[in-house]
Amino acid sequence: MSKTGLLFVASEVYPFVKTGGLADVAHSLPRALSGEYAVRVVMPLYKDIERERFGIVALEENFNLSMGGIDYPVEFYGCTYEGIDYRFIYSPLLCDREFLYGSPERGYEDNDIRFGIFNYAVVELLKKDPYAIVHLNDWQSALVPLLMKQEGRLLAKTLYTIHNLAYQGNFDASALHKLGINTEYFTMEGVEFHGMVSFMKAGIAYCDRVTTVSPTYAKEILKPEFGCGLEGFLSHHRSKLVGIRNGIDAEHFSPVNDPALVQSYSDMSGKAPNKKDFLKQRGLIGIKKPLFVFIGRFVSQKGLDLLIETLPKMAALECNIALLGEGEARYGEALNAIAKKCSNVHLTFGYDESLSRRMYAAADFLLMPSVFEPCGLNQLIAMSYGAVPVVRLVGGLADTVRNIEKYDSEKRDGFGIVFTKQTGRSFMHAINRAMELYRDKQSYGEIVNHNMKCDFSWKESAKHYVSLYKKLEG
Ligand code: ADP
């Protein structure tokens, strides 16, 4: 029997482009689903994607897409990569930019039109080929169900995953006309949000099912603290909302076969050469001192305020600290000032996949003091690479990292140092607990080896998606 068609839509997919966790998920989840479904992944063909390297070819299906009375040229491209069928949408306005969405400080002014083109082009794909399920991700593809409704004759069922509610794709009311959306949708029940047009609201309102990337985050976003103004709207739609924890591609994120590492390893004993090499490269001294790393976007969500407040105190301890990331200038400047003063703090600006993997391998601890965290992948990667996570009890962190005080070798969960309050004191207390754990070599080693054996793959979570799809198929 041939498999049912599933179109998976994302604005970034690893290894073509990646700015964060969405790209990892859009790479690994379709792979995990491909046993059950005929999956096709669709994304924009941004200018920096290496067409030759991935064998991306034009499909001779160029056309002019009409949106809000204006024609936009669109070309379809395709390739098969690691057994997955990819479709790419190229339109100059959407793809020929320095950044995917804009600078870390500001999204591009015309993101409504750019991602409007993307959404309309996805609808064109749906008209060409029958799919039973369309799986949309984040605001960049959230208009699709509304456009399908407007089109009237597309029968696919839709599932919309919110990877981060804080990024909603809200635009001035004039976007309604530019996007060719009928005014009947511009209501509180529809896309209207404080007089603006909200892509996120379209996804929530018109999709058959809505998911978020962890069970705890699914509950948190119903409260004002985490709901970003949409808590009431989400509560109204709560019967179709469910949280499914993200996984990581266990093959791809494995210290056993990661070409970025100086030495591969399968338990704690193999980490030392990686740590030694990393410290040397970064001019940090003291292999015996614990190495704490932070890898991620320098934005408030990731707990940068807490990190900056705590770093000087941390640096006074017998440890090394390495940070990798990019984001808001004010955070970058503050971190830079600390790194200049403290010889045991090393800062690398930028996005560097290979370096990030060397850091996970070298690290004894990963810092994740997030204010909110829809799921978080860093802590899963860290545990797979034998770095103990130090995390705040929030969102997906609460679902994936259990406190070491509850350590039980029989449990299949990952363990780490969990703290609750978003205060410097609470975070510093967690750091001191980490220092203490590190001194107890036996307990530390046991936790690391336990975490490295845990299964953070998509195996279980993919089953939840399959069961949701099956329910939608009826
Ligand atoms: P986000 O909220 O940014 O999506 P996630 O934890 O879900 O956070 O996923 C982050 C992913 O991006 C992880 O694979 C992490 O290793 C990677 N990452 C984040 N910042 C950087 C960076 N500066 N360089 C390399 N990889 C990074």
CATH topology of the largest domain: Rossmann fold
Q: How many separate domains?
A: 2
Q: How big is the Rg?
A: 23 Å
C-alpha end-to-end distance: 18 Å
Characteristics of this structure?
binds adenosine-5'-diphosphate; Rossmann fold; alpha/beta; globular; 7-stranded parallel β-sheet; 20 strands; 474 residues; 10-stranded mixed β-sheet
Description:
The chain is of the alpha/beta class. It folds into two domains: 4-247 and 458-473, Glycogen Phosphorylase B (Rossmann fold); 268-453, Rossmann fold (3-Layer(aba) Sandwich), CATH 3.40.50.2000. 38% of the residues lie in helices and 21% in strands. It has 19 helices and 20 strands. The strands form three sheets. Strands 1, 2, 3, 4, 5, 6, 7, 8, 12 and 13 form a ten-stranded mixed sheet that branches. It has a seven-stranded parallel sheet with strand order 16-15-14-17-18-20-19, with helices on both faces. The chain is globular and about 65 Å long. The two termini are 18 Å apart. The mean pLDDT is 97. Adenosine-5'-diphosphate (ADP) binds at residues 20-21, 24, 295-297, 324-326, 351-353, 356, 376-378, 381. Adenosine-5'-diphosphate binds at residues 20-21, 24, 295-297, 324-326, 351-353, 356, 376-378, 381.
In short:
The protein is an alpha/beta fold.
Write the topology of this structure.
Layout: E1 4-9, H1 21-33, E2 37-44, H2 51-54, E3 57-58, E4 63-67, E5 70-81, E6 84-90, H3 92-95, H4 111-128, E7 133-137, H5 144-151, E8 157-162, E9 170-171, H6 175-178, E10 192-193, E11 196-198, H7 199-206, E12 209-212, H8 215-220, H9 224-227, H10 231-236, E13 241-243, H11 272-282, E14 291-295, H12 304-315, E15 320-325, H13 329-341, E16 345-349, H14 353-362, E17 365-368, H15 378-384, E18 388-392, H16 395-400, E19 401-403, E20 414-419, H17 424-439, H18 441-453, H19 459-473
Parallel strand pairs: 1-2, 1-7, 2-6, 7-8, 8-12, 12-13, 14-15, 14-17, 15-16, 17-18, 18-20, 19-20
Antiparallel strand pairs: 3-5, 4-5, 5-6, 9-11, 10-11
Helix pairs in contact: 5-7, 11-14, 12-13, 12-17
The structure holds adenosine-5'-diphosphate.
